[in-house]
Specification:
Layout (H helix, E strand, L loop, with lengths): L16 H20 L11 E6 L5 H12 L3 E6 H4 L7 H11 L2 E5 L3 H10 L4 E3 L7 H15 L6 E4 L4 H12 L4 E4 L12 E4 L2 H5 L4 E4 L11 H8 L6 H6 L5 E4 L11 H4 L6 H19 L3
Bound molecules: phosphoric acid mono(formamide)ester and norvaline.
The site of phosphoric acid mono(formamide)ester has 9 residues, from helix 2.
């Protein structure tokens, strides 16, 4: 069996603290350098990167396609209907065939167990572009954004709402890098215990002292069948002006997007002066370029 030349990124757990720091440093550097000289480093020059997407996407798809092009490669988008992975043929065969043509596989799948299976059978690295379990590329861009505002200060981050994929990756990354991290949401929608992560139902307590207030949708892709219940349970956890006033004065607001104004966040907050959501979206590009360079061994 072939041995992978580089490693997968299916979870924040797949990198050491040092590797995470290196990716973030390179992302910041590459953002500055891009302003002066676009596309100097050609990490995937002349190579094709398969992008297997079972779910919808704007930011992840466009930022990865742009990143791959700026690194000299060719992104190949394979939507759910075109390859029907797992239906038309087994994940295993998709993985082994893609590995013969492409240098890397970026995958947005419903289930983490499927991306693990894909990675097991691929002989090229696999990058998680979101599953129900994690969204590690989002967390890298979020951390880059936090550091652009607060430098190396280990500011308190409070995630409000659903203990979902976005919450899990950010919680892992933040605690690994030494940030105090609190999740504030309803009892039955918590994350499993993660070392260093405080979880509470109490808003005042959770948000007090926070320099970063983060939320995400209450109904993630795949959770639509629970919509009615979720909208009720999460209502007290809306990020609005009152909630932001419980945080530090210079706190920023983050959201991975897409957002539902009037549900998890009000328009005055997400469109207001504390919001950094466009920087987060931009940083997906820089963080992923850095990640691809590291994974491809440059
Ligand atoms: N934040 C994020 O992953 O957005 P998309 O679902 O549009 O890719
Ligand atoms: N938690 C959301 C994030 C979308 C980027 C979802 O999984 O749908």
């Amino acid at each position: 069996t072939a041995v992978k030349p580089a490693h997968d990124f299916l979870s924040i757990d797949d990198m050491t603290d040092g590797q995470l720091e290196e990716v973030l440093d390179l992302a910041a550097y590459s953002k500055q350098r891009r302003a002066l000289a676009p596309s100097v480093i050609q990490a995937v020059e002349g190579r094709t990167v398969a992008m297997v997407f079972e779910k919808q996407s704007l930011r992840t798809r466009v930022s990865f396609e742009t990143a791959i092009r700026e690194l000299g490669g060719h992104p190949l988008h394979l939507g759910k209907d075109s390859i029907a992975m797992g239906q038309r043929e087994p994940i295993k065969d998709v993985a082994s065939n893609l590995s013969r043509w492409c240098s890397l596989i970026v995958a947005r799948l419903y289930w983490q167990r499927d991306i693990v299976e894909l990675a097991e059978h691929a002989t090229v690295p696999v990058v998680n572009a979101l599953t129900e379990w994690e969204h590690p590329c989002q967390a890298l861009a979020d951390m880059q954004t936090i550091r652009e505002v607060f430098g190396q200060d280990k500011v308190k981050i409070t995630y409000v709402g659903d203990g979902n994929n976005v919450a899990r990756s950010l919680a892992k990354l933040a605690t690994r890098l030494g940030y105090p991290f609190t999740i504030c949401g309803p009892e039955n929608f918590r994350l499993e215990p993660i070392e260093g992560v405080r979880q509470t139902t109490n808003l005042e307590e959770g948000v007090a002292g926070a320099h970063v207030v983060y939320t995400d949708v209450w109904v993630s892709m795949g959770d639509e069948h629970e919509q009615e219940h979720r909208l009720k349970v999460f209502e007290p956890y809306q990020v609005n002006g009152r909630l932001m006033s419980m945080a530090e004065k210079d706190a920023i607001f983050l959201h991975c997007l897409p957002a539902r104004r009037g549900f998890e966040v009000t328009a005055d907050v997400i469109d207001g002066p504390q919001s950094r959501t466009d920087d987060q979206a931009e940083n997906r590009l820089h963080a992923q370029k850095a990640l691809l360079q590291k994974i491809m061994g440059l």
